[in-house]
Structures are given as structure tokens and as C-alpha cells.
Amino acid sequence: MRTADWDIKKLAILRALRDRGTVTATAQALLMTPSAVSQQLTNLARQLGVPLLEAHGRRVRLTDAAHLVLRHAEAVFAQLERADAELDAYLQGESGEVRVAAFSTAVPALVVPAVRALRTGHPGITVRVREAEASEAYELLSAGDVDLALSLAAHAPTARDPKFTRVPLLADPLDVALPAGHPLAGAAGAAGPRLADLAGEHWIFGGSGPWSEITRAACEAAGFVPEQAHSAAGWTAILAMVEAGMGIALVPRMAAAGREGVVMCALGEDRPVRHVVVAVRRGSEEAPAVSRVLDALREAAAER
Q1: Are 51 and 65 in contact (CB under 8 A)?
Q2: How far apart are CA 247 and CA 179, in angstroms?
Q3: pTM for this prediction
Q4: Do the Cβ atoms of 191 and 197 come closer than 8 Å?
Q5: Is the pLDDT of residue 203 over 80?
Q6: 134-144 confidence digits (pLDDT tens)
Q7: Does residue 138 contact residue 149 with C-beta atoms inside 8 Å?
Q8: Residue 6 in contact with residue 44, Cβ under 8 Å?
């Protein structure tokens, strides 16, 4: 086997199969036919001289040799990203377009302030924003449809994932939203109640999804299971119900919006937080425009 036998296009197909799980899903993602995917991987196995796939029920799975090949290929893909970054620097310098996917509360709290700062300091950089939840954001990033993805750390790929570089942005505290007449509303300016003090309250949070998981996990860490009185996914609906005295809710500080009948109360010693991270494809962080946007996001996070 020679280095000339390492076909980048075929290696990318092999990586896509590892990530997508099936030949059919891989073909759909790469806009190929399943037979073309199979043929390319058969040719790659012949070129490398090792079996890459083995039957597993009605599907196929990667062999140990395939995983070994991909461990080395990830370094190649990262280096190619760096090469693209250097070419971008050579060709465009301070100009360029950067595509950002971010979850809903991160858009006004972090992305918009970063864009405003870039317009002043680096007006040649264009930022295109796409609102997306964590799972969609990383699919877009992996597919090359966006350049940066903002999400909560709990729903992001691990730091060991060779495809991405993760950058922590901030720890966003979770405050409790109380109706103005609540007995603990006056504690908002003091040390704040403990989350455990609210165990007997009626709670408002989503029926499923990340925020349901965050609320349940925070309350369980404080020693109780929250009684869900009402279910809502949007902060406007949640805060309206809190204002009406229908229950209380955990609200990330980034998402809090002023509402006359709602008191945002900082919790005490057991205050939960959610960690916000941004990720890029490994190697692409060296592209000047992407680096500028990362710096602007860090600055926006530091000012909160």
C-alpha cells in the first residue's frame, strides 16, 4: 500500500457511513445512490488492502481496520481544514462570510452583540445566523452548512470528538421566575432562596426536550422531583403563566425578559447553571473570519 492509495473522497464517504450508521442514510447525506456508496467503499478497501465493512444482521458495520484508518484520516481532514483556512486568509484577508447556527436564547444574548461588534471592528466580515436546536446545529456543522454551532455543553459532542473543536463561552445561571405576590418574591434582592425551598411549588416547564431535562435534573440535584402543573416550550407562554400565578419556572438568565408581574429571583447556594459552548470543525478555527467571530462571541459572553 502507498500513500497514493489514500483517496480523500472515499475516506470522506467512510467517515459519513460511520457517522450516519447505514449505507442508505450515507447516500442521502452525500447525494449519492446506495450502490455508488457501496462501490466507492469496495474500491477503497481494495486500494488499502484491508476489509472495511462486515455484515451485521441486515446492515453493515465498520471493521476494526476501518476505525484505524479513520483515526488517521481525521488528522488529514483537520489539516485540509487548516489548508482551506490559510487559503481563505490569503485570498480574503479580513473579508468573508461566516455562517452561525445557535439555539434561540443565544441569538439575542450572544450572537447579536457579537455581530454588532464585528460591524464596527471588522465590517468586511458578514455573519449569517440560523436558529437551530443543538442536534440540528451539529448536523449542519458536520455537513458543512454552517461554520460555527452554539449549544449547551450537555447537548454538544464531547471534547474527544475528533471532528470538532469546542470553545466554552459562559456559565448561564438559572433563576426562578415567581409571580409578584409570591411569599419568596422579596428574597430576590437578598441572598436568595435555595432551590430545595421550592420543592412544594407547582412548576411550569416543557413536556420534553432539553429544557424539561434541565429543569428536572436541577430539581433532582436539589433533592426533589418537580410537580409539573403546566407544560410550555416558549418563554413568553411560561412567563405569562407565572405572572398569572399558575406556577413557577426555572429561567436561564440569558432568556429572562422584563415582565411587570414576574419577579426573577436569583437562587442561593445550590443555584444551577447551564454551560454554553461554541464548536467549529477542527482546523477551521484558524480561518481569519471564523476566528474573528469566535473572538466576538467570547467578548459578548464576557460582558454578560
Answers
A1: yes
A2: 8
A3: 0.73
A4: no
A5: yes
A6: 778 988 999 99
A7: yes
A8: no
